[in-house]
Amino acid sequence: MQCRDALRTATMKKQLTRRLPLYVPRLPDGTIDYRPTYVVWEVTLRCDQACRFCGTRAGRARRDELTTAEALDVVDQLADLGTKEVALHGGEAYLRDDWLQIVTAIRARGMDCTMVTGGRGITARLAREARDAGMTAVSVSVDGTESTHDDLRGVRGSHAAAVRAMGYLRDAGVPVGCNTQVNRRNFRELTQVLATILPFDPYGWQVQLMVPIGRAADHEDLWLQPYDMLELMPRVAQMRDRCDERGLKLWPGDNVGYFGPYEHKIRFERTHSGHSGGCGGGIIALGIEAHGDVKGCSAMGSEGFVAGNVRTAKLADLWKRAPELCITRNFDIEDLWGFCRTCYYAQVCKGGCVWTAASLLGRRGNNPYCHHRAIELLVRGKRERLVQVHRATGSVRDTALFEIELEDAPPDWVRSLPELPGAA
What we know:
The chain is of the alpha/beta class. It has 15 helices and 12 strands. It has helices spanning 2-17, 68-81, 99-108, 124-133, 146-153, 158-172, 190-197, 229-246, 263-267, 315-321, 338-342, 346-349, 354-361, 371-379, 411-416, and strands at 38-42, 85-89, 112-117, 137-141, 176-182, 204-209, 249-252, 285-288, 293-295, 308-309, 382-390, 401-408. The chain has a 10-stranded mixed beta sheet. Strands 11-12 form a two-stranded antiparallel sheet. Strand 2, helix 3 (99-108) and strand 3 (112-117) form a beta-alpha-beta unit.
């Protein structure tokens, strides 16, 4: 019965999606206007926590991180390129001595400056200084209940510090949001996360799937399996309903979802079409590493994705000409393989998150973390499992290598799954 319901739901979703236009920015002459309107800048790898899921293995600063003068030059180049928002990441951005100077410079050039933080070192004074520098908004990471969060972050008291940080920022007048790195340890604790953050009247809550790279690749207990999407996505949709009731925006990360029955519910505010249109890296987004390497997305690995370095090339030249930044702009259906190549939504979804697929399987174009895909396999009585075949090396931003095993869906597990919309 559940398989038939899944098939009916998938069919209805296909019919709906045919009527949804895919939005692309265009110039008056009809050509596409590619601009890095959103930039994620990892300003340092120095960190005051030791997160088990950290994809960059942050802790110590890179030896060759950009100097203040170099960072300020990057700010000017981004403004000249038409960037609207610069999101400071780390490590922990506030551990750079000149981080407030960078914030001030970003705001002086008319761009929004936001920050993602674990919050451990944010004090009332630091929150006021961020406000005075012009910080637009800060998103604080909350990754489960107190015990789960502290275990994931590797520091006892980390959860309490994050909660305090939200209070300090709110009291200082800095808009505060939340982000959650969703993994197998915490995805059943989203309700508790929501209860934790609601008292601070956050402007938004982003949920992002953990990808097993960096330290996360060393911890098998954290890896999401592709079939977990069948339980996870209904939970995300439920959180969306609860957030709507409280006037809180829930934003799915770019590696969440893909055309299951909840896609329009969770994504309608984030895209013009109401569904995923593929990776935005190199189209509207840009990533910069602490030592100046430039990529289409900050999460992407180094091999095959680094377009150049700001010390040796101008951002404008890289943006216009570097082939590594044109991967998504020049998408071809032949770039896809495996299940994604034959998927009904291939031309629109484009394989979803490039970083996720490449990090898992060593090659972009086949993304197993897909709700639609999990439903289609369930209809056939199957599910996919990721099996690690090579461990990560232990270096900065390293990846492991996985293979996909197709297996029969255990009947007891199928019966335990939440019903899809439309199920009798």
